[in-house]
Each structure stands twice: as C-alpha cells, then as structure tokens.
Phosphoglycerate dehydrogenase
Amino acid sequence: MTERILTFQALNPDQAKQIEALGAEVVPFEKMAETSGITAIFGWSRKHGLNVLQDPHNAVKWIQTVSAGVDYLPLDYIKNHGIKLSNAVGVYSPAIAESTIGYLLYFLRGFNDAVKNQAGHFWQPPERNDLALLASQKVVIYGTGSIGQDIAELLNGFGNYPYGVNRSGRAVAGFAGTVAQKDDAGLIKDADVIINAMPSTPETVDYFNEAYFNQLNGVRIFVNVGRGTSVDEQALVNALRNKHVLNAALDVFNTEPLPKDSALWELSNVLITPHQTGFAVENTAPIFDFLADNLKSLQETGELRRNVVDPARGY
Amino acid sequence: MTERILTFQALNPDQAKQIEALGAEVVPFEKMAETSGITAIFGWSRKHGLNVLQDPHNAVKWIQTVSAGVDYLPLDYIKNHGIKLSNAVGVYSPAIAESTIGYLLYFLRGFNDAVKNQAGHFWQPPERNDLALLASQKVVIYGTGSIGQDIAELLNGFGNYPYGVNRSGRAVAGFAGTVAQKDDAGLIKDADVIINAMPSTPETVDYFNEAYFNQLNGVRIFVNVGRGTSVDEQALVNALRNKHVLNAALDVFNTEPLPKDSALWELSNVLITPHQTGFAVENTAPIFDFLADNLKSLQETGELRRNVVDPARGY
C-alpha cells in the first residue's frame, strides 16, 4: 500500500521528492485537516499528534521522531495500538558534545565573567591562576551512550580522559574508567566537572538531589545536557549558593520554558541555554535519512530497521 | 658571581628555595628600593623596569619574561647594552588554543544569544539551522607557530583540519594546507572562521584592515588571539556592522585596557576578553622552569639555553 506520511517536521522540496520517488505521499502539516488515510508521521505535535492517531479516518502504523528522547509521546497509546516507533537517537550527539565542550570552556576560560564585565565596559582581567585548562580537569560523565561517548571523544582531543558512570559499570572506549551508578561516591568526591548525559527513565528522576550535591566539595562545573527531570532544581540552586557547585551550564529543565520566576535565571554562576544544545544545521540530512531508510524497510519487509524504539521501555 | 634576581613576577616559597639552592639570590619586588647589585629580572614592570636597568648600582645582564611577546620591553636599550633576553613562548599556547576553541563554540553553539536572553529571563531557542558544528567549519589560522599548531591540534580532535597562513607557505602538521601571506586571498573568500595568531612584527601591523575585511563575504567568526596591532579596529567595527564579519572574539587590542568609549564594547556580536586568553594555573610550573633552566645555563656556560630572544628582531 502507499504510505501517506504527515510531516509535522517540514521536508524541503528535494527531500519531499525523494520520499515521493519511493512511492509514498507527503502530507504537509498545513494540509492535515483536509487529508485522511494518514499511515505515518514524521516529527510530532503536542497539540495535534494524538488527535491524528485517534482519528478513525487515519491508520497510523509508524511514527519517526526527529528527537532522540520520546518521553513526550503518548507511549501507552502507541504500545496498545501496535504503532511502530523510531527515533533520531545519535544524530544530536555530535552537536550536544560540541556544546558541552563549549560550556566547560565558557567557565574554565573566564568567559562568564568577561561577558558580564563587557556589558559594563569593564576591563577586568582575572587572576592568572583563576583560569584553568580543560586538559587538567577530572571530568565525570553520567551516561555512556552516544552522547557520553561523543563528549568523551572530544575530551580525548584535549588530552582529557574522563570517567563514566553507567548502569552496570561496564567499560567504554574513550573513558579512563567507569563505575556503576551505585558506586559513584568515590568518583565524584574530587571531581572538577560533572556532566549529566543520561536519558529520562524512572531511575534517573531526581538523581541529582540534595543528598547528591551535599557529597560534592566545590565541583567547578555541573552540566545538564540529559533531561531536566534528573535534577532537583531547588537542590541545585542551594548547591550553587552554598558552593557545593561553583558553576552550572543547563540546557534542560523540570519545566520548559523555564518559568520567568525561576531562581536559576538570576544566578551569576549559571549559563542557561533553552534546550538547544543539540541543534545544528548538519543534523537535517541524517534525520531525513532515518525517515527514508525506515520507509524503504517498511515497504520491503514490513519492519523498521533504524533506531527502533520499544514504547514500553521508552528507548 | 652570585646572580641577584629581581622578581617582578612573584615566586612562591618553594620556587624561591629552588632558586636559592642554585646559589642565586631572590629579591622580591617589594625590596627593590633597598637593594643594589641586581643582575637579572624575572617578569617585568612597565613602571619600574627601565629604571632598574638604568640604575648605576645594578648590573642587569639577563631578563626572563613571563610573557611570550616582548614588544612592551625597551628593546633598543636591551640590545645596545647587550642584555640577554629570554621569553616564555610556548607556555601559553595550550591555554590560548583552549580559549580559541571556546570562542568558536560560544558563537557556533548559540551561547552569545543565550547569555543576552538569560539577562532578561527570555526563553528564546534559536532556529535549529541557526547553530552549526565546529567540525564542519572552514577555519583559516594566521600564524603556524606554537599557538597556531596547538589550535590546529585541538581542531583536529573535532574532526576539523584547518588551513594555515604563514610567511613562506611551508607545510605544517595538523593543517589541511598552508599558503604564504601574499597568497591568502583564495583561501579566505569562503572561510567560515579566521583566527589571528601572529606575533607582532612590522609586517603584521594593520594586516587586518579595511581592504582585508572587504574581501570577506560574511565570515562567521573572526578571532584575535595574536596582537592588537594586527587589526585596524575601526575597519573591524565597520566589517562587523556591514556583515563582512558576523561575529568576533577579541582578546587583544590597539590600546589596553580597551578605552571605555570603544565601539567594540557595545557590539552585540563581539565577545571581549581582557588579554587573558593565555592565563592558566597550569602555566606557573613551566614558566618557572625557564627561569631555573636559564639560570643554571648562565652559571655553567655564560649563555641562556631556552627561549632566547634576539632584541633586534623581537622574537
């Protein structure tokens, strides 16, 4: 049968032509209301997505997300209706890894003070010993999947071999060593940098809480490029105020957009980026490739072949 | 004879002990007025340095700077009086290279907008295609000495092989290619990033002038970690306003401190750091090593052996 793909994520004309050349139809988001018989969705809409699935005139059997995480989807509905699901995991990792190195250099190389001084036309050099090299920092990365591995690989280019924390403590290339989550206490007590790159799962909710931060003795930088749910934000604010954590770079939050009255906005030792760390113009092509490859696979075998997600597990 | 070393750059107690163990005397800056017979200087003071050289009670024969460049010294006096000169070239290169990568990621990964939005509590994500990967940028580095090479090495870790510009066009490891200065026009016309890492010499003064910037067609980032004298600042301001250059990260300036009324402070597409790019706590040890090694050499052979500078050439 001819697949009819609703594109919440717009395709450019060349991409649309490629999909049509595979014998499928492309339904732009704007034509959603006047189209029935939708069998697949590219991207997602929090407002309209579930309606499209539930509309009896459609027969959606496959969703290809443009995101790595899928926790914002109606996973129970997807599971119960046997809808196939594939994500874009891996695509964002190079961009997230580059951003993460940027966050670290922003604080280590004195940019955070420089931008504040620039606003007041203040020429105020730091003390020579206030700045430090990324090469020398002890970095601990939570999560050793594609994001953690890509961060580690870039760190290696600075001569830095980080430590990893994962479920089992299994060894991973690019890391000086890894431990299981339950064994992280010894690793973090003299860490200079802690990076969260874990996905959202029940075990990671509020992992970075008051008890966690109280173990730290002046960690220079805490980075969250994983999920907002992993961090108890009030505990982090307290840690930033009482110097258990000296600086933080945060891309994800409990509530997004971050509420106007969040204390995080005002802390001078925090860099906030609005859930953009994985953005890059270079991502467009590989995300489209997932769509095209999975479409071909579905046509040929009835199954997806790339980045298949189990909706019961969420990854 | 016993060397008597005036330390404009303070030594810590352990370092002072090591120098004394070599049979030399350490004269802290604070005791300058009450001390005569100074034979060597570590560091420099713009206010007091020349007085120390000219004081007939002293007999300075060696200056060990803590900087890489020596253009702020009275080079004619030093040359005419046969004073030996050594610098700290190379020490700062790793820190400058790390800072340079930080400057590039600051703009490429959208931090420049993020910090401005954070000040107003604005959650304003960029368009997905507004951000880009460092891996994909065409980078051109002016100067392929220790700074340029260290920048190239870090870029290589991002999968980026930059182009170099030097006097002769000689090939240098870590670069995709190099050209001589006179042949740079073809290289820069489609560059994404241009980095100045050249020392201050007569040939580099105002190298980046109006004619230069007019060749550029929207270079994404211009970085100056070389010398302020290499850039015609008014021409750069014009280039930033008329979009020949989209963003700039500047650590060095024609006049330092940068005057309060410089237009550069106010440009929203400029990051200003106050001549700090080479600072790092990790530099202390290797700079001291130059002092100790050259002291030993002077005692043994009458000549310096590390980082000897010809005051007539300035490097």
